[in-house]
Amino acid sequence: MNLLLISDTPIIIKIFKLVCKKLNLELLVQNNYEVETKKDFIIIDQTYIDDKFNTLKKFCSKLGAISNDELPFEKARDFIIPRPFLPLQLQEIIQEQLTFIEEEATISKQENIKNTAKYEDFTNDLTNYVESLADDIALDIDDDNDESIVTLASLRDGGILDTKELSKISEILRYDNIQNEVMHEEADWKELSEIIDEALNEVNEFTLKEDLENPTTLVLNRYSIDELRPLLEKFDQKIIDKLTNGEDIDLKLRLKDNN
Fold first, then answer.
1. What are phi and psi of 115, to 5 degrees?
2. Phi, psi of 82 (to 5 degrees)
3. Cα–Cα distance, 23 to 19 (Å, whole number)
4. pTM (2 decimals)?
5. Of 12, 57, 77, 93, whose Cβ has the fewest other Cβ atoms within 10 Å?
6. How many CA atoms lie within 13 A of 178 on its CB side?
7. How far apart are CA 94 and CA 88, in angstroms?
8. Total Cβ atoms within 10 A of residue 153
9. Which portions of the chain are predicted below pLDDT 70?
C-alpha cells in the first residue's frame, strides 16, 4: 500500500517516514494537489486544506487531514490527525484506517461472490426454462404434424359424411383381406360398441392408457355401416377421405391436460 502526504513541514514529513517504514507503507511527499493516479491514503497538512480538498477523495481509499481543529462538514475527510501529534498517535490512526480498508475489501469480495452466484443461478434457471419451453414446443409441433392423431377439436367439428361416402366405405368393408391378415390377433380386439362407449359417450369419465407396443386393433370390416356410423360422423373430412379411398388410418385416443 502507499500513502501520499501533501505537506512541506519537515518534522511532519520525518514522523511520517518513520511510521510508514514501520507499517511497510510506501510514502510519497509533495506540496501541491497534482494527483493523477489513485492512492491508498492521501493525507493533507493543515496549510494545504482549501476549497479543492474534496476533489482528492476520488483519488484515494482514505482521505485524511492534519488539523488543530475539527474540519467543517463540507470537507469530505475520512479521519483527522490532530496537530501536533507523536509518532505513536500517527501509527495508531493509520493502523485503524488500514483495518477499515481490509474490512471493506472483504465485504466487497463477499458481495461480488454473492452477486456472481445469483447471476449463475439466474442463468441456469433461464437456460432450464428455455430448454423446457423448446421441448414443449417440439412436442406440440410433433403432435400437430402427426396425421395419426385425431384431436378432440377435430372430432367435435366432424366432416361431411354423405350417402356417397357411406356407400364407398360400406363397399370397402365387404372385403375381408384385412380381417384375414390380423385374425391371429383376434384375442386383442375390442367390440366396436365398447370402443364407442368409452371414446365418445364417456370421454370425461374414462382413463385410456396408451401402449405403443401392444395397441388395440379395430378392423372396420367386422362391422356393418350402421354400427360404424356414430364413430365415422365424428371424423373430420381428411379422415373420411382416406377411408373412402380404402386407406388405413391410425386412430389414437387420449386425454390431454391443457393446464
1. -65, -40
2. -65, 140
3. 6
4. 0.45
5. 57
6. 15
7. 10
8. 8
9. 138-166, 170-223, 253-259
The CA angle 195-200-201, to the nearest 5 degrees, is 100
- In the three-class reduction of DSSP (H, G, I as helix; E, B as strand; rest coil), residue 36 is classed as coil
Beta bridge partners of 79: 64
Long-range contacts of 23-26 (CB under 8 A, 24+ apart): 23/91, 23/94, 23/95, 23/98, 25/1, 25/94, 26/1, 26/2
Determine the length of the chain. Answer: 259
* Span 142-195, pLDDT tens digits: 655 555 555 545 545 556 666 666 677 766 665 544 455 545 444 444 555 566
Q: Which residue has the cell 386383442?
A: 188
d(Cα 247, Cα 242) in Å, to the nearest integer?
5
Terminal CA-CA length for the chain: 62
Q: How many CB atoms lie within 10 A of CB 160?
A: 10
- Give the 3-state secondary structure of residue 67: strand
What is the residue type of 105? A
Q: How far apart are CA 33 and CA 126, in angstroms?
A: 50
Calpha distance 172→72 (Å, rounded) = 105
Contact between 42 and 4 (Cβ < 8 Å): yes
The alpha carbon of 102 is separated from its chain's Cα centroid by a whole number of angstroms, namely 35
CA 243 to chain centre: 48
Show the cell assigned to 38: 489513485
Q: Which residue is listed with cell 509518532? A: 87
- Sheet holding 39-44: strands in order across? 26-30, 2-6, 39-44, 60-67, 79-82
